[in-house]
Predict the structure of 5-phosphohydroxy-L-lysine phospho-lyase-like.
Amino acid sequence: HITKNLRKTAYISKRKIQSCKLFYSEDPVKILRARGQYLFDENGKRYLDCISNVHHVGHCHPSITKAAAAQMDLLNTNTRFLHDNVVLYADRLASTLPEKLCVFYFVNSGSEANDLALRLAQQYTQHRDVIVLDHAYHGHLMSLIDISPYKFRKLAGQKKWVHVAPLPDTYRGMYREDHPNPGQAYADKVKDLIDEVHGKGRKISAFFAESLPSVGGQIILPEGYSAKVAEYVRAAGGVFVADEVQTGFGRVGSHFWAFQLQGEGFCPDIVTMGKPMGNGHPLSCVATTAEIAGAFTANGVEYFNTFGGNPVSCAIGLAVLDVIEEEDLRGNATRVGAHLKDLLTKLQARHEIIGDVRGAGLFVGIELVSDREKRTPATKTAAWVVKRLKMDHQICVSTDGPWESVLKFKPPMCFSLEDAELVVQCIDRILTDTVTSPMITSQSSVNISAESSCIPLISAKSDYRMLIDPHTVIPKI
Ligand SMILES: Cc1ncc(COP(=O)(O)O)c(C=O)c1O
């Protein structure tokens, strides 16, 4: 009865006000329990979870629940009392980062971490303006909506102190895979922007970017980009903030942090963390240098956060780090991610609609295009694939990118080789049906009603589309 009412409410809310959106809004899923990479609904039906990067070491991992329960049973206070957990945890995190990132602020969400990063940058530099990447999302607080083009374009618009640099997307952006040095070329765009900002008499406090832009479409930053941008931004008196909320804690396999993919020589001034950090428990953090932290403290205003750094959160954080090591989850991400990418690349040879396959570790994207030459985003087919994967195969995948044309994978890190093979087989089947079924050969006739509410309604007049690729033909949404 409750489930029936829930579905009715979901249906009503879909038709009326929808500030809270569900996956599969016309046929929502009610999950009652989960383990590892699997979700189970009220009828015991099992779903393979390809998108919950929050449940990093696996849903309801027994080591995490045990550590949480044990500390809950003993004590939970705040950082006004001494406690070993917060020190031990900061120490463990420090061992994963370059030495200069040695001060840690524990907070409760990715948004809180980014908001604090913004304060730190502005206080340290005594400048106001921020450069962000196009289509970025950095959180739901007002300060972060202001620096998230993905949101502010649909709301109050761009503030004078916010400046948008092109997304360094070598598949769809202004410099592509055939460019001799896209990292330098995209970084030079940031330099141009800095000069423009200075021309207006304004000053840069920070460059904010995800180490692998996710909402932007699972983008892998070109080689050399971050170091060059950091050089330009620092020369302008600003700092480099790496948002690792989605990508940290070994997701990319080869490294603990995704910013490390940019080479040993590159180190951000501030790193923000969140989602996977507490395996579902609200736990996040800002790591920075002693100089930046010193400037923040120098104004005499204390930083207090009621829940941030409490003994339970830190016990959970420590347990997450233990599991990553004990179960070699970075090794697993490397092996399974490489296998998944390899299988998808083979699939690309057989399906014209797969325009690009990209990723690092278990952060993988498949970009669907209705025309490979023009790279026309196949938005409707992407929504169709998501729907069929859920309905026919109980596999949860979602889309991202400016046109919601990128199928994204960021599963719990225990995702297996067999899981990867199953998903690719199912996508193969669906894409084969897409070609043979007269119902879905035409982009305009695809029935995507279940997912349509998830597709952002970008105005056809939006300048933003032109920024991404002036040659792209926009499909009807
Ligand atoms: C890159 C990035 N930064 C920050 C946030 C905000 O995190 P939270 O939802 O925990 O506030 C998100 C959330 O999706 C995110 O993807």
Q: What stands out?
A: The longest strand covers residues 363-371. The CA atoms of residues 87 and 314 lie 9 Å apart. The pocket of pyridoxal-5'-phosphate is lined by residues 109-111, 114, 137-140, 210, 214, 243, 245-246, 274 (CB under 6 Å). The chain has two domains: 4-57+328-434, 62-326.
